[in-house]
Amino acid sequence: MVTQVYSINDFLCEKNRTMKKLLVIVVSFVALNVQAQEDVNIAYVDSLFGQLPEVMVIGERPVVKAQQGKLVYDMPRLLEQLPVSNAYDALKELPGVIEQEGGLSLGGREVSVIVNGKVSTMSKEQLKILLESVPADRLDKTEVMYAAPARYGIRGAMINVVLKETIGQKPAWSGEVQGTFQKDSHESGKGQGVLLYTSSHFSLDAMVGYSDSRTRNLFEKTSWHTVDNQLHELTLDTRGGGRGKRWDYRLGMDFSLGKQHQLGVVYNGNHRMGYDRTEMLGTATSDRLTEGTRTLHNVKTDYQSSFGLSAGVDFLFYTSPTEEKIHSTLQGEEAVYDNRNNQRINRWLFYIHQEHALKNGTGLNYGVQYTATHDNTYQFYLDPTTGEPIPENSLRDLRKEYTLNMYVGASHSFGKWLSGEVSMATELYDARERHSWHLYPTMNLTCQPADGHTLQLSFTSECIYPNYWQMQALVQYMDSYTEVHGNPSLKPFSNYTLNLNYLWKNKYMVGLQYQDNPGSFFQLPYQVPDRLAEVNQFVNFDFRRSWMLQLMASYQVGKWWNGRVFAIGLLSHDKLDDFHQIGFNRQRLSAVLTTSNTFILSRKPDLVANLSGRYQSAAIQGFYDICPMGSIDASIQWTSTNGKAKVILKGTDLFQTSSPHTEIDWEGQRMDRSIDFDNRKISLTFIYKLGGYKEKKREAVDTSRMGR
Model pTM? Predict the structure, then answer.
């Protein structure tokens, strides 16, 4: 939430105005922020730098209300003073939502985003791409739930994005053009054009986007590796960079078939191409060049009826052919690798749901969802002399996976002060030798004993599946020392989460969360004892458990500055009895401190600034020790008097302090790692609306288990 604000000219004399402007400058130097890390581009550190959770924050203005275990936000009021240009950045302004490992998370957990309550095939990558193409003013409201009921076809934390209606309006064309220039170590740019037609019975939306970007990274590692009782100290410095181009496109149509009957058809696609080159110097050397393309096509049709019935079908095709060449030396031994690989995914999803509104505030819902996936993957390492595939490290595999989910749920309002929703889903998972049934209960309960007091209790359970690449019996060579091994024995794991939150006047909150993840999987490194090689592999832990305490408060200084501050205490516990005859049973208390501030610099011209800060203390993951991190972000936004033009200048990680550093010193395994990406970025975005543009938002496409 935000506080209604006015220009300083409305209430200050010239002298006080000058003093307050000086105060803004002082605050900008002391605010702290640790920005959630984007997805790590180096394959063998995947999943390592998951951030600690962020607290749920409620601002001062009453832009949120509690309904049946969910928080409903009025997005236009929440965003009216925030310098955001698209729906993806808008969702990051929701309390408790941060960007983590390239996707969105809620309260430190991966969150699913659906649109208008429909079953969605969200993914971190496609979610970000498509939401970034949607202007923020297309949003009507969002529904935030820590435990998604089974009727949504998903489990765990959920955000339901509700869009402004388009069908039923007078015939009209509108659109928007947007361009962004970004500077870090290199220059990059992106642009897009969108078009929308609306009428009383039909709407059409189209989007085309293009981006051209360059990347840079620095990866420093020191490894103390013992082979045959002899200690080797390896210093490995890897410098990398690359360039990528991508096209994104979408065409969607909605048809009104009668009163409250609607048919929707949408196509989403993207194509990207690029290369990445890394050079490693030090004890070992290597030169690696990776070139490839990725193409995705997705078609979805859904039907919504006036009597609570909804049904749909979704088809996805994905392919990612890649060529990779590595020339490396270690202790005088030279190796040449020539790799060809591809992942081809065909996935069908069918669903049908039914909802009934009964008497006395009671609701009943039930349904079924079926998913079939064929993963046709190959990898060939070619002999540098003959050019023929090397049998011991080549594979062509067709993996078939089927999931059947059935559920039933009910909701009820017990007067104005108590409401809740419960559901039970049963799921059949079938993939090769694995054939298993799972039960997933879910519960949300909201109590409002008095005005300004809200108590929420939720319980959710879900199953987390590994990516397809992680389960393949493949070996990928990253350089002369580092290897990534697939794990065919990797299993899905269950997540059980209990949340209790108390909100007072929508300004202050105390929250307690317990999470249990038996069999959770993470990637760990292993220095093999018989040769100089580091093997990285995803493995199932015995469990990961955590307790989290959240504290929040919002504040206001006059009518020109409002902000929020929150703190988290997290006690995490990781246990694994046997990882290459190494075990660990570790606990760690960590903390996160965050603040976000919005300043009204002027009404005429319309200038709004934002300054945010986040600090994260040391944390653990398995036998990793993750060192503290911190960062500061700032932005300023100008909006024209007619609201059609907008310019946003944004700086991210201004002091380059958010890059992670990890250490391992555990039962003979010892190494230090530092990663330095281009986290410090300066971007300038220009937006212009044509004809009062209000874009239609479409669901993203689930590629969360594809790629590597």
Answer: 0.75
